[in-house]
Design brief:
Layout (H helix, E strand, L loop, with lengths): L2 H29 L2 H17 L9 H33 L7 H19 L3 H11 L5 H8 L3 H29 L1
Helix pairs in contact: 1-2, 1-3, 2-3, 4-7, 5-6, 5-7, 6-7
InterPro entries: RNA_pol_sigma-70-like (IPR039425), RNA_pol_sigma-70_dom (IPR014284), RNA_pol_sigma70_r2 (IPR007627), RNA_pol_sigma70_r4_t2 (IPR013249), RNA_pol_sigma_r2 (IPR013325), RNA_pol_sigma_r3/r4-like (IPR013324), WH-like_DNA-bd_sf (IPR036388)
Keywords: Sigma factor, Transcription, Transcription regulation
Family: Belongs to the sigma-70 factor family. ECF subfamily.
């Protein structure tokens, strides 16, 4: 580990110690659920850890608020997508109603996929969600995240590979339980 890596970790650690409680209190006003608040606050600092070359921050609370707000928007988009998907399934299945067990299985599959996507690093996950949920193009994603289009392409390849592995694991698990 280089000295720059150490100083970066120390700087983020100092920010965490100084502002984590404040950020949780601020997020609680928007989210209400303490588990969501803690997840978003922790993910905010993970993003800072993953960002290369953290320069001295003049307004750390403004930066933390901006990152956390983006994470909240991603959470809301995922929840909206899940809700839309479940509503669509419910509408599609009015003629052939699904059993509660089928709906539970579907919800569990969506939650499993969400956990799988949470294993991706912040920018890779954000790239995937901006593409799939918001329908942004690679140039738009690159501009939104401040990365190159090549990085967007690599991140999408990485997230697609993870989704394929997830899908294959789900198929194997269904075959085992059948």
């Amino acid at each position: 580990m280089s000295g720059a890596d150490f100083s970066h970790r120390n700087a983020v650690g100092a920010l965490f110690c100084a502002h984590y409680s404040w950020l949780c209190t601020r997020l609680y006003r928007h989210l209400g659920a303490i588990s969501c608040v803690e997840d978003i606050a922790a993910q905010t600092f993970v993003i800072l850890l993953e960002s290369p070359g953290l320069t001295p921050i003049r307004e750390p609370r403004a930066l933390l608020t901006t990152i956390a707000q983006r994470l909240i928007y991603q959470l809301w988009r995922r929840r909206d997508l899940e809700r839309q998907h479940l509503d669509q399934l419910q509408d599609d299945d009015c003629a052939q109603a699904r059993s509660p067990e089928d709906l539970l299985q579907l919800t569990q599959a969506l939650q499993s996929l969400d956990r799988t996507l949470d294993r991706l690093p912040g920018k890779v996950r954000a790239t995937f969600l901006l593409s799939r949920l918001d329908g942004l193009t690679y140039p738009q994603i690159a501009a939104e995240l401040g990365i190159s289009q090549r990085s967007v392409s690599m991140y999408m390849t990485r997230s697609h590979a993870l989704c394929l592995r997830h899908s294959a694991n789900q198929s194997v698990n269904r075959m085992r339980s059948a």
